[in-house]
Design a protein that fits this description.
Distance between the termini: 11 Å
CATH superfamily: Globins
Strand content: under 5%
Largest sheet: none
CATH topology: Globin-like
Helix content: over 70%
Structural class: mainly alpha
Number of helices: 6
Bound molecules: protoporphyrin IX containing FE
CATH class: Mainly Alpha
Order of helices and strands: HHHHHH
Number of strands: 0
Radius of gyration: 15 Å
Shape: globular
Length: about 140
Amino acid sequence: MLSEKSRPVIEQTIGVIAERIPAITPEFYKSMFNARPDLLDGMFSRSNQKNGTQPQALAGSIAAFASHLLNNPDSYPDEVLSRVAHKHASLGLLPEEYPTVHEHLFGAIAADLGDAATPEVVAAWDEVYWLMADA
Ligand code: HEM
């Protein structure tokens, strides 16, 4: 469940985050594959990266998860989580990789939002990311 502290911050920023995802996503992947080129060999599909559909899926699903938490505070979007978990498990993805995506995704968000990425905003979205990753 989203904390009472984060809820109003997510309410105020979900619009801008959702709107900026198309701009944030390429920077996130560029930064991550620069640091971890091995993830492009065997883990992420190169053709999916090229056609640009999957790249939006990851960050987009976090905004969708946040929106679910705002509208249904007592539940998780189980179907979506199950689909993502099955996909990740089929790829042999380990929990240890979640900090990798976190680091590069939040780096790209902070760079895109600039001064709007206040510590309060970053902390609230951190909470959403880890709720989803842990689920
Ligand atoms: C909270 C963090 C994460 C979220 C919300 C997330 C979300 C998603 C979503 C929505 C999909 C598409 C599933 C489908 O096919 O319907 C996906 C696929 C995928 N995810 Fe994640 N993911 C996360 C973390 C990670 C991490 C840490 C890695 C690896 C470092 C990863 C690697 C992949 C890969 C390789 C695919 C398949 C897509 C492709 O072939 O390009 N994900 N993820």
